[in-house]
Amino acid sequence: MEEKMTGKSWKVVLIDDDPEIRETIGGVLQDSGHEVLTAGDGDAGMELCERQSPDIVITDIRHPGIDGFEILRRIKTGRPDVEVIVMTVLSEIELAIQALHLDASDFITKPIANDALTVAVKRAKDRIATRKELGDYTALIEERWMQTAEELAKTFDMQKSLIESSIDGIAAFDSDGKTVIFNRSMEQILGYERGNVIGKMYLSQFFSPGEAEKFEQKLKSEEYGGKRRLFLFESILVDKSGGKVPCQLSAAAMFQKEEETGLVVFFRDQREIRKLMQEAADQARLLQQDKMISLGRLAASVVHEINNPLAGILNYARLMTKMLGKGMLASESVTKFQGYLSLMESELSRCSKIVSNLLSFSRQSTLESAPVKVNELIAKSITLCEHKLSLQNIRIDTVLSPENPVIPGDFNQLEQCLINLIFNAMDAMETGGVLTLESALIPAQKIVEIRVRDTGCGIAKEDLIYIFDPFFTTKKQGKGLGLGLSTTYGIIDRHHGAVSVESEPGKGTVFTIKLPLGS
């Protein structure tokens, strides 16, 4: 199909707030012969699209200004012929699936692989070519619609190669609803051979009970694209074996001299998308599981820390009970009594703070933005881990910004990022060492940097490029799922920030998180 559009200069608009991503992806596309225009935020990107009329738009779902969803909606409203490819991180694949429901042509996950980018762009081109030919074909049918169903079938047969090459299922029906066209994709979707369908089966037979009536009602209304037209209507079909097939339907009635002579229906199989949605839900459970593993490691270490003050409180309570059993308290005993109460209150307060921090950390939450004091974020993360660090003979140093900068973000999720990095540092320093947490305000760039530095074993150069990939781990079996750094990357990206790593075997590792200041 793409060969029919050779010689065309493909114009691509790339929208992402990360200049490195714009430079990398733009370079790959330009090397492939594309004209590439870039924008750093949603507003500038939308303005660029309106001014330049691109063929393809590649946009991150999350960036400053209007987000990727709004860009997708505006483009599909104003110029539905433009193909939109969305970029996201693996931990937010459910957002990519939502974009597909809004008729995005494809999605690619960060970090972007050249092969995935090439495939996504090729699919977008194929959709443009298919849509152009289908548009030409539909216009031809509407202009030259024949008197009978047989002539309608002949007209479709002239375009057999176009219909057969369509990724979506295409079927045509005469005025009585009898099938006259049934392409290869329809055979794959429903499992029927066309010889057993054409001229023998009716449109209503393909629907699950009750769905045919809904389809006809919506086709008569103007809710989904106009009277006797449907656009992306959700329905349930039944395949040859009786299994239910979720589909997205688009349909258009054909007329000759105001008389309806047939119906063309386009079917998009939704089973793969539903599968992706389930995988997204599974991924969310895995990410929470990684958090619970971290919580388990924290809880195991603080059991002893809580047990010691509780034992002390119990001893003081026994002493006080014994003192009360002797009758009225002397002045000296009252002073001791008050001292014991003060110590008990202090120890109980410490236990309560530890338990409260653990409960807060364990919550599963969506991104909820609020002002976050960076130094307090670091201090709380250290509080949760300090007993475990001391057990491993690891000294904690902090170098904190005196300004105590404030950023917009989700405290709980950012805390999860820091604890993941602290645990990685602990695993790298099995025999002890120094863990340094730093914060720095960089006004010129309007960002805050958080660094987690260890004196551990370091990371091999060949492993560094995979360090943020899901399920990649250099730890021994049973020490982790390989989700911690992937989770961290996803959370920081959702905060419009970036995370990077520097390491040398035998000399330690530094992870740097960069987060934007609030406006």
Strand content of the residues, in percent?
15-25%
First and last CA, distance = 48 Å
Largest sheet descriptor: 5 strands, parallel
Average pLDDT reading: 79
Percent helix, as a range, is 40-55%
How are strands sequenced across the largest beta sheet?
Answer: 2-1-3-4-5
Shape: elongated
> What value does the Rg take, in angstroms?
31 Å
Please work out how many helical segments DSSP would assign. Answer: 15
**What structural class results from the helix and strand content?**
alpha/beta
> How many β-strands, per DSSP?
17
Low-pLDDT stretches are: 477-481
Description:
The protein has 519 residues and is α/β, with parallel strands linked by helices. Helices cover 47% and strands 23% of the residues. The strands form four sheets. A five-stranded parallel beta sheet has the order 2-1-3-4-5, sandwiched between helices. Helix 2 runs parallel beside helix 3, helix 10 crosses helix 12 and helix 12 runs parallel beside helix 13. The longest helix has 55 residues. It is elongated, with a radius of gyration of 31 Å. About 1% of the residues have low confidence.
List the helices and strands and how they pair.
Blueprint: E1 11-15, H1 19-31, E2 35-39, H2 42-52, E3 56-60, H3 68-78, E4 83-89, H4 93-101, E5 106-110, H5 114-143, H6 149-158, H7 160-164, E6 169-174, E7 179-182, H8 184-190, H9 211-220, E8 229-238, E9 244-256, E10 259-269, H10 271-325, H11 331-362, E11 370-373, H12 374-391, E12 394-399, E13 406-409, H13 411-428, E14 433-442, E15 447-454, H14 461-464, H15 484-494, E16 498-504, E17 508-516
